[in-house]
């Protein structure tokens, strides 16, 4: 019985995280200016990256080490170039990339 309750709680946490991330991606998709806010997202364990950028400007100012930590936190794989790291982060958080 306890195992079933834990499983149900885990499923509920995952559903809540997916809902939060879906809403965040919708809001992040309209970020165009450096001052535009970004909505944080959770990883599969339900934890938000502690240094999640608050604005588009903060995202664009991230260095390679910060982007690597971000990508690792969300289990996204880490490409070699910073340009590709930034692209992967932008896609993940729902930004429209031209």
Strand content: under 5%
Tally the helices: 4
Low-confidence stretches: none
Total of domains? 1
Give the N-terminus to C-terminus distance in angstroms.
51 Å
Structural category is: mainly alpha
Which features characterize this protein?
98 residues, globular, single chain, mainly alpha
Describe the structure.
The chain has one domain. The termini are far apart. Helices cover 55% and strands 0% of the residues. The chain is built from 4 helices and no strands. The protein has 98 residues and is mainly alpha-helical.
Q: What is this structure, in a nutshell?
A:
The protein has 4 helices and no strands. Helix 3 crosses helix 4. The chain has helices at residues 2-28, 56-60, 64-73, 82-93.
Q: Topology, pairings included?
A:
Elements: H1 2-28, H2 56-60, H3 64-73, H4 82-93
Helix pairs in contact: 3-4
